[in-house]
Amino acid sequence: MARDYYGLLGVGRDASDQELKRAYRKLARELHPDVNPDEAAQTRFKEVSAAYEVLSDPEKRRIVDMGGDPLDGGGGGAGGFSGAGFGGGLGDVFEAFFGGMSGAAGGGARKPRGRVQPGADSLVRTRLSLAECAVGVTKHLTVDTAILCDLCQGAGTNGNSSPVRCETCGGAGEVQSVQRSFLGQVLTSRPCPTCRGAGETIPDPCHKCGGDGRVRARREIAAPVPAGVANGMRVRLAAQGEVGPGGGHAGDLYVEIVEQPHDVFVRDGDDLHCTVRVPMVDAALGTTVVIDTIMDGPTELTIGPGTQPGEISVLRGHGMPRLRSSARGDLMAHLDIVVPSRLDSKQTDLLRKYKGLRVKDKAEVMSAQSEHNSGLFARLRASFSGR
Ligand SMILES: [Zn+2]
Ligand SMILES: [Zn+2]
């Protein structure tokens, strides 16, 4: 008699593949032997897994929908859910958990891995100057990678020969062996050493790639790097990574930015910092200086009268561009007041006169030691919290 596979999963007869998968995952999480050691749960887990295996296979599902049972007779007369047909049940569960589910293989045996595999992602690092990070650049890189074999176009075979079923594993892609342990005999399986899990071998392999379907080569790659990137960021180039075994579709290539330190500017996110030296007299009287910027050329910076050492003058919008945005960071000019180290007699005279003037101004007389909330400490605090 046909089993109620839909009822076991708790779905209607019109359930979509998505609904089937969702229902199965939910039950498998409750019933999986790793989380639920209860014997009844294990039995139900086997039943539920079998139901999912049947219903996720369009051919088997069709048999069920016509009133049949695709598992009848498959277990050598036993016909039960614990029959030999479900040796691969656990593997299928894990596939379902990790989203790699495709139609289950006939008879419930684990499917061979297949000769064609997706290629690996690769990573290259490239040095960029701060200016290149600011404006964006197309970097021409040479990468050592795996490309499709042009002789066999990935087939791995020579001429018109075809792959054949692996004799060692009979096409299963894995071999099983019985090991004795103190718990008794344990059946273990491992990838077939002859076909390395593919289930098939190539008797007459391609002369160029030896059957792998791909060859190592150096490739020139033009990597477009957008403006605003920073150290450690990765630019992803889809399908520019390694071609997979058997000509499987290429992985992605990641280009990691290694930002070189700049002589003048220190970067902090989108903001830039630099030091601007201002002569003592200019700081006192105020002036305008021209400083270099990363993207806008020489730019005027106003120094107000009475500027103190360590003050920061901000050029809004003259920092780094924000990635994928038209916004810009700021340029913070840290003002370094320069006291002349050598004075000629005329300058010394003038400063002495200036000093004489200042002493008469009572308001200017103050203690040489300032309090904590003024002077150096306050400026340090302001520069740490001001941004
Ligand atoms: Zn080849
Ligand atoms: Zn094999």
Task: Report on this structure.
Zn(2+) 1 binds at residues 149, 152, 206, 209. The longest helix has 17 residues, at 39-55. Helix 2 (17-31) runs antiparallel to helix 3 (39-55) and helix 3 (39-55) crosses helix 5. Among the domains are: 5-105, Orthogonal Bundle (Helix Hairpins); 262-341, Urease metallochaperone UreE, N-terminal domain (HSP40/DNAj peptide-binding domain, Sandwich); 348-387, no CATH class. A hairpin with a 2-residue loop joins strand 4 and strand 5. It contains nine helices and 15 strands. It is elongated. By secondary structure, the protein is α+β, with helices and mostly antiparallel strands. 24% of the residues lie in helices and 25% in strands. The chain has a four-stranded mixed sheet with strand order 10-11-15-14. A three-stranded mixed sheet has the order 1-9-8. Strands 2-7 form a two-stranded antiparallel sheet. One zinc ion binds at residues 149, 151-152, 156, 206, 208-209, 213. Residues 149, 151-152, 156, 206, 208-209, 213 line the site of one zinc ion.
Overall residue-averaged pLDDT value: 84
Q: Within the largest sheet, what's the order of strands?
A: 10-11-15-14
Q: Which structural class is indicated by helix and strand composition?
A: alpha+beta
Run of helices and strands: HHHHHEHEEEEEEEEEEHEEEEHH
Number of helices, counting only DSSP H or I runs of 4 residues or more: 9
Instruction: Estimate the global geometry from the Cα principal axes.
Output: elongated
Q: Termini, distance in Å?
A: 75 Å
Architecture (CATH level 2) name of the domain at 5-105: Orthogonal Bundle
Poorly predicted regions: 74-108
Number of β-strand runs: 15
CATH class label of the domain at 5-105? Mainly Alpha
Q: Output the CATH homologous superfamily of the domain at 5-105.
A: DnaJ domain
Query: What name does the CATH topology of the domain at 5-105 carry?
Result: Helix Hairpins
Quaternary organisation: single chain
Zinc finger (CR-type): 136-218
GO biological process, one term: DNA replication
GO molecular function: ATP binding; heat shock protein binding; unfolded protein binding; zinc ion binding
CXXCXGXG motif repeats: 149-156, 166-173, 192-199, 206-213
